[in-house]
Write a structure and sequence with these properties.
Length: 374
């Protein structure tokens, strides 16, 4: 359709502004997505002793999804000033998964039952031994459960045979937040925001952890990267390991566990690999403890490994070994790295027998990997 000839807002008396203008303003201001505005809006609580769901007051937006009006329908503002109990259909002879939908009935887009309105709607799934929720296709234009207007799925709810009230453990909330300005909330994980509606510079705050992410877009990468606190991973060696001796060179320390990877930036095994979108300055801290060897004097070395090659800085110390003695080694390194670069560490001693590395909890070989910034 191109540029709309009616802008917002002309002050001339009698000048008409179509309703699509307001709806498209709402869509543009809320990130072109359905969702609520604040934490707690439209929270769901099963009603004890009855087949009903209590829905908290709140405010939100439902993005128009009529297929023939993509890009022009805009978004609907909805709000509730009091909690309300929504009656739920009774249990069936087999399990089923129902969808709780915030439905907009809009006669501008076709015939509807009753008057135009916003309404909480339960769309029942098909009872089955392996139940699935109603599909988006069934709710969209042409689907068997389609209603002219717009819809937003707020939750899926499993109802088992014999249920006389909704089990809170069977409620899968799909609630999300609209974008206000350049900021958006997510309930518990950044993966909730992988729906393609974000752009460079947007900031996401994860409610459950307090962590924040920035959406990055370049010619080779688009996605969320951690910004607060700095992303990090702590990886360890758990399985038994011995290091080389007699000057034969460093023994690679293959990591096989993670003690903290809340940001999900470690692959789960082997050396640390710089994740997509996170090229830049990284800081690493490595440490290990080596067991004793009685009656010899050895020079012990721990050093980082970058892209398969050992490099400085290293920690090198001499020790006259006696029974029950240990050598603790560590290093700190900062490097500007590219996506796909690998970082590990290795250790060796210059003489004597092969030495066991301590892998008991609290003393395991450890590599702390922290993203400083671009």
């Amino acid at each position: 359709m191109g540029l709309q000839t009616v802008p917002g807002y002309i002050g001339q008396s009698g000048y008409n502004h179509p309703v699509e203008l307001d709806r498209n303003i709402m869509e543009a201001l809320t990130g072109r997505r359905s969702g609520v505005f604040q934490y707690g809006d439209f929270n769901l609580t099963p009603v004890v002793g009855s087949m009903a769901m209590q829905i908290a007051p709140g405010a939100g937006v439902v993005l128009g999804n009529e297929a023939s009006y993509t890009g022009t329908q805009g978004s609907y503002f909805v709000w509730s000033d009091a909690a309300e109990n929504l009656a739920w259909p009774s249990a069936s002879g087999s399990p089923r998964i129902d969808a709780l939908v915030l439905q907009i009935y809009d006669s501008q887009y076709g015939t509807i039952s009753g008057s135009p309105r916003a309404e909480w709607r339960v769309v029942q799934g098909t009872p089955s031994g392996s139940p699935v929720a109603p599909t988006d296709a069934s709710l969209n234009t042409g689907g068997g459960s389609h209603v002219n207007g717009a819809w937003w799925r707020v939750a899926n709810v499993l109802i088992n045979p014999g249920d006389t009230q909704i089990n809170s453990a069977n409620v899968t909330s799909l609630a999300q937040y609209v974008k206000v300005g350049r900021r958006v909330l997510a309930r518990s994980a950044i993966t909730e925001l992988n729906d393609g509606t974000f752009e460079a510079g947007d900031v996401a705050h994860i409610i459950s952890t307090g962590r924040e992410y920035t959406y990055k877009h370049t010619a080779t990468f688009s996605g969320w990267i951690p910004t607060y606190p700095s992303a990090y991973a702590i990886i360890e060696r758990v399985a038994a390991l011995s290091i080389n001796s007699g000057g034969s060179g460093p023994t690679d320390i293959p990591f096989d566990a993670e003690s903290d990877d809340a940001f999900g930036i470690y692959s789960g095994s082997g050396n640390f690999v710089i994740p997509a979108g996170m090229a830049g300055l990284w800081e690493f801290y490595g440490s290990l403890r080596i067991g004793s060897q009685a009656g010899t004097t050895s020079l012990y070395t721990l050093e980082p490994k970058l892209n398969g090659s050992f490099t400085g800085p290293s920690d090198r110390r001499a020790m006259i070994n006696i029974a029950a003695n240990f050598m603790e080694l560590s290093f700190r390194m900062e490097r500007r790295l590219a996506v796909g670069d690998t970082v590990g560490m290795g250790a060796f001693q210059n003489s004597g027998a092969t030495q066991a590395v301590v892998v008991t909890p609290g003393y395991r070989p450890t590599l702390v990997c922290r993203y400083v910034g671009p």
